[in-house]
TrEMBL record:
<keyword id="KW-1133">Transmembrane helix</keyword>
<dbReference type="InterPro" id="IPR022369">
    <property type="entry name" value="Integral_membrane_TerC_rswitch"/>
</dbReference>
<feature type="transmembrane region" description="Helical">
    <location>
        <begin position="251"/>
        <end position="274"/>
    </location>
</feature>
<feature type="transmembrane region" description="Helical">
    <location>
        <begin position="222"/>
        <end position="244"/>
    </location>
</feature>
<feature type="transmembrane region" description="Helical">
    <location>
        <begin position="38"/>
        <end position="57"/>
    </location>
</feature>
<feature type="transmembrane region" description="Helical">
    <location>
        <begin position="190"/>
        <end position="210"/>
    </location>
</feature>
<feature type="transmembrane region" description="Helical">
    <location>
        <begin position="103"/>
        <end position="123"/>
    </location>
</feature>
<feature type="transmembrane region" description="Helical">
    <location>
        <begin position="129"/>
        <end position="148"/>
    </location>
</feature>
<dbReference type="InterPro" id="IPR005496">
    <property type="entry name" value="Integral_membrane_TerC"/>
</dbReference>
<feature type="transmembrane region" description="Helical">
    <location>
        <begin position="286"/>
        <end position="306"/>
    </location>
</feature>
<feature type="transmembrane region" description="Helical">
    <location>
        <begin position="69"/>
        <end position="91"/>
    </location>
</feature>
<keyword id="KW-0812">Transmembrane</keyword>
<feature type="transmembrane region" description="Helical">
    <location>
        <begin position="6"/>
        <end position="26"/>
    </location>
</feature>
<keyword id="KW-0472">Membrane</keyword>
<protein>
    <submittedName>
        <fullName>Unannotated protein</fullName>
    </submittedName>
</protein>
<dbReference type="GO" id="GO:0016020">
    <property type="term" value="C:membrane"/>
</dbReference>
<dbReference type="Pfam" id="PF03741">
    <property type="entry name" value="TerC"/>
</dbReference>
Length: 332
């Protein structure tokens, strides 16, 4: 895939424009994001991503177009899992809802920087050592197994090493002071809880980059596609948070599905390396990967809906039984 400097420059320009657009429109003033606004921005970012994918398909061919859409789907699905962590962080630090939008935008910008660094390192490693595919694959399989074992457990933001270090070494106040990260009290500088939240979000983004970058390289080895798939998925992350905030707790099997996806992509990466060394070893194609990933996400979503409906029915039935017994006691 031959990507000219002009195309790279235009792509960076487009991404920068989208960030600036967000800063001067939706994120310009702190406010509670309505469901209608979240739908509008989510539709905008998904449409922009699809349009970019179609341009890749038309300009570079169907193979690279398919790889972009597969990489975007992987990143977007992993981004949804990230939202679970963001919800927990914002809830446990009791961040006022009007500041959620600004914090998430800062998180997205930091994530883009982290992903850019990791993508550059990953691309250089793959170019020099093809065995990097096996290393990336092993990381994903190990991560997938860990997520599979603990898929129904919520993380504890205060267990974050960086958060614990900041708490122990930096003077802090307990109250939020608008969106300020630091304030002065009696001429002494104190960090606010907002600073700690940003640290928690940034360090979480850093950890997610360690998983998501190898996962994206698992469906395409093209640096341009890895970067753009990550960028477009992250740009739509903030709007997706407000759209799904009330539904996230209902996607009970999403983490389980993502653990299987990570293990599948890990195996695909390992097979890719051995296919190059031993031609008899089969290679998983990109269209097949796209189908498997889509299928797992659909099954996880449907199973979550069934589970949620079943739990709601069981609770409603238990409530009726309890209520009935209460009436019997009153009548007696």
């Amino acid at each position: 895939m031959n990507v000219s400097l002009t195309i790279w420059a235009l792509t960076f320009g487009l991404i920068s424009f989208l960030i600036i657009l967000d800063l001067f429109t939706s994120s310009r003033k702190a406010h509670d994001v309505s469901f209608k606004e979240a739908v509008g921005w989510t539709t905008f970012y998904i449409s922009t991503s699809m349009a970019f994918g179609l341009w890749v398909w038309n300009h570079f061919g169907s193979t690279f177009g398919t790889e972009f859409f597969a990489a975007y789907l992987v990143e977007y699905s992993l981004s949804i899992d990230n939202l679970f962590i963001f919800v927990i962080i914002l809830a446990q630090f009791a961040v006022p809802s009007i500041f959620h939008q600004r914090i998430l935008l800062i998180g997205v910008i930091l994530a883009l920087l982290f992903r850019g660094i990791f993508i550059s390192i990953g691309a250089a490693a793959i170019a020099k050592f093809s065995f990097t595919f096996v290393i990336f694959g092993a990381i994903l399989v190990w991560t997938g197994i860990g997520l599979f074992r603990h898929w129904d457990e919520d993380p504890e933001p205060n267990d974050n090493l960086m958060v614990r270090t900041i708490r122990s070494r930096v003077a802090m106040v307990n109250e939020f002071h608008g969106s300020k990260l630091f304030i002065k009290v009696d001429k002494k500088r104190f960090a606010t809880p907002m600073f700690l939240v940003i640290i928690a979000i940034a360090s979480t983004d850093l950890l997610f980059a360690l998983d998501s970058i190898p996962a994206t390289f698992g469906v395409t080895s093209q640096t341009f596609l890895v970067f753009t798939a990550n960028a477009f998925a992250l740009l739509g992350l903030r709007a997706l948070y407000f759209l799904l905030k009330g539904l996230l707790e209902k996607l009970v099997y999403l983490s389980l599905g993502l653990s299987i996806i990570l293990m599948f992509i890990g195996v695909k990466l390992i097979l890719t390396y051995f296919h190059e060394v031993f031609r008899d070893v089969p290679k998983i194609s990109t269209p097949l990967s796209l189908g498997v990933i889509s299928g797992i996400l659909i099954i996880a979503t449907i199973a979550s809906a069934i589970k949620t409906q079943s739990d709601s029915t069981a609770k409603a039935h238990a409530g009726r039984v309890t209520g009935g017994k209460g009436h019997e006691k009153e009548n007696s």
